[in-house]
Specification:
GO terms for molecular function: ATP binding; gluconokinase activity. Belongs to the gluconokinase GntK/GntV family. It is an enzyme of class 2 (transferase). The structure is a single chain. The chain has about 190 residues and is of the alpha/beta class. It has one domain: P-loop containing nucleotide triphosphate hydrolases (Rossmann fold). The chain contains seven helices and six strands. The strands form two sheets. The chain has a four-stranded parallel sheet, sandwiched between helices. The protein has a two-stranded parallel sheet with strand order 1-2. The radius of gyration is 16 Å and the shape is globular. The termini are close together. About 40% of the residues are buried.
């Protein structure tokens, strides 16, 4: 989880690759109307975001759901901004075991990164509004904050180390880059 340009998609894909899991970019779950609004330089409101956040969490829940033959579903890694505590709470209401990994850094560093990126519908001008909305992961929330000043490979290593220290592993954990399981033993991690 985190603001645009913090590396959610890059780290999420690398994390999924390292764990042999499927990666989903939450950006792909935005409605056409939300994409058009952002492309025009207007930040989304809570009313715009809530259906999207529900879709992100439902995507995780569907992946984790038992298969028709009774086999366990598959954990996934999903990238999602999840900027506010209320957004994360909404997602955890759908997937209670959701664990978030927040990629954080200075606004100046992220703004500099955005000068090298061309996003389909997220102009760099939206960064200010994202930092204004951002509520960092709190100590009582499942997950960790990871400094994005590290390389993507180092960040993946830090996330894996964090998962190991919280006694999560590939069979009981999922990484959701900005998501979680409806069943007790599984954990989902969002960044």
């Amino acid at each position: 989880m985190g603001v645009q340009g913090c590396g959610k998609s890059t780290v999420g894909q690398a994390l999924a690759d390292s764990l042999g899991l499927r990666f989903v970019d939450g950006d792909d779950l935005h409605s056409r109307a939300a994409r058009a609004k952002m492309a025009s330089g207007h930040p989304l409101t809570d009313d715009d975001r809530l259906p999207w956040l529900a879709r992100v969490a439902e995507t995780v829940a569907a992946a984790l759901a038992p298969i028709d033959n009774g086999a366990a579903g598959e954990p996934i890694v999903i990238a999602c901004s999840a900027l506010k505590r209320s957004y994360r709470d909404l997602m955890r209401a759908i997937v209670p075991s959701l664990v978030f990994m927040e990629l954080y850094g200075s606004q100046a560093l992220i703004a500099e990164r955005l000068t090298h990126r061309n996003h389909e519908y997220m102009p760099p001008t939206l960064l200010d509004s994202q930092f204004e909305a951002l509520e960092p992961l709190a100590a009582d929330e499942a997950g960790a904050r990871i400094d994005l000043a590290n390389s993507p490979d180092a960040i993946v290593g830090l996330i894996l180390a964090q998962l190991n220290t919280t006694d999560l592993n590939r069979t009981t954990a999922s990484m959701a880059a900005g998501a979680a399981s409806a069943t007790e033993p599984k954990k989902e991690i969002a960044h």
